[in-house]
């Protein structure tokens, strides 16, 4: 279902719903994915996080950990969880159109 | 004389010293190793101390017993690494020069990272078991505990030995049964991971074990603070969990010396090449064991496989040859599951823990992702192997690279 809705915007998603090519990302796509994640409106604060994630991804090839996010983006942990309930690192990465953050094994 | 300097004489550093000392030409190379403490602790033994299975003396030996003569050993804190000058400053005022530097300063718990964790409840009804002090204090407490709600919480990933918290609750289930109070104890496993473990198949198997043992699983839980006066933990999303006894795995971080030297990430882990173990910033620095930022498990077995790889590569480098050996993320972990049984997992960067058999020449086979008595013996045998083979850099009958032999895909 999620596939279809976003497919209308012509993006390729992997089996977990993350963009396979971050260059395809647009703000409209971010809004659509956010909607699926139950985030009705993307505010400026959301975009502080999203922009930071995209910048970080371009520079390092992976999304930042929550620790790095809070330290570098200036958005406190508490607010981060309020903005992206249920898992900021993963949700924000999906909305920002970058790969799912690599966990450890 | 060329200088090889090794920082940290824990599992990885000690192993590396013992592997290289016999082969490096003594007219050309001086090996120096630095550590702040004179006692070597067998950290996997900390798991067993709270349940009275090991005592303090089972898990400690003098570090001196494990250094070959001919190696320069310095006991001192390390103040700062200055890579641009190929220098290391020690707390005792000494300045050491190096041609090559191996960093093996490990990782440790930082309870101060979680608000309230180290407050009034710390080592009263809140304990860690990742330190000798924590596990001894917990042993005393458990001896007289009459039951209630035990909550085990992992503050944040990554942690060293990611299976140890599972082992702790499995052993708790067994131990409280032995004490005749299992019906008075409720056990809850609270983790930031989406399930019982990191990878899907193992996560499912361990999840089933938790179920079977009547241990409740709360996943995706990110602790924000402890309120010791109220005996509860609270998540960033304000979800509260109350406890009578809290077992915490606090945030694990690399040593502050890494931060002071500007070498680490947010958790003081050092950005390291996944395959060669070379520092991403400095060609003559290599990192091994828990100090790296690799996505492999932080475990003694992993440090051992890394040491094999680094050994080969280092010999190539000093002969001006390219590095050929590649670390594949191999980990091999025995998981104590209680009632005299254990589970074995064997995996690497690309292959998650799979079921099947694990062939070990002369001893095995062991069963993978299954509970057996044999795996328990494997776990208990590990202590002997650690002191007598592993630390001494002896060849073990197990390859550094993972093998698919015996695994069911
Ligand atoms: C409870 C528990 C259970 C475990 N169970 C298992 C298991 O079953 N199997 C397994 O394979 N692994 C297990 N492990 C993990 C294993 O113990 C570690 O992965 C391993 O010891 C890592 O080795 P290391 O050399 O990287 O670090 P360490 O062995 O921790 O050594 C680091 C050394 O560096 C020194 N150092 C650090 N900073 C400084 C400084 N600034 N100045 C001077 N010296 C410094 C320290 O004193 C220390 O000696 C367990 C760990 C714990 C805590």
How do the strands and helices of this protein lay out in sequence?
The complex is a heterodimer of chains A (105) and B (409).
Chain A: H1 2-7, H2 27-36, H3 44-60, H4 66-73, H5 77-83, H6 88-95
Chain B: E1 2-7, H1 11-20, E2 29-35, E3 39-41, E4 60-62, E5 72-75, E6 78-82, E7 87-90, E8 95-97, E9 100-103, E10 107-109, E11 126-127, H2 132-144, E12 148-154, H3 164-178, E13 185-190, H4 200-212, E14 215-218, E15 223-227, E16 232-235, E17 240-242, E18 245-249, E19 252-254, H5 256-260, E20 285-287, H6 300-318, E21 331-338, E22 341-347, E23 356-358, E24 366-368, H7 373-390
Parallel strand pairs in B: 1-2, 1-9, 2-5, 9-20, 11-18, 12-13, 12-18, 13-14
Antiparallel strand pairs in B: 3-4, 6-7, 7-8, 10-19, 15-16, 16-17, 21-22, 23-24
Helix pairs in contact in B: 1-6
The structure holds flavin-adenine dinucleotide.
Flavin-adenine dinucleotide (FAD) binds next to helix 1, strand 2 and helix 6 of chain B.
How does this model look, in words?
The complex is a heterodimer of chains A (105) and B (409). With 105 residues, chain A is mainly alpha-helical. Chain A has one domain (2-96). In chain A, 53% of the residues lie in helices and 0% in strands. In chain B, 45% of the residues are buried. Chain B folds into 3 domains: 2-52 and 59-106 and 255-318, FAD/NAD(P)-binding domain (3-Layer(bba) Sandwich); 110-251, FAD/NAD(P)-binding domain, CATH 3.50.50.60; 331-390, no CATH class. The mean pLDDT of chain B is 96. Chain B has 409 residues and is α/β, with parallel strands linked by helices. Chain B starts with a strand and ends in a 19-residue tail after the last helix. The interface between A and B is medium-sized, with 16 and 23 residues. Bound molecules: flavin-adenine dinucleotide. Flavin-adenine dinucleotide (FAD) is lined by residues 8-13, 34-37, 43-44, 46-47, 77-78, 104-106, 129-130, 160-161, 164, 255, 257, 289-291, 298-301, 303, 333 of chain B.
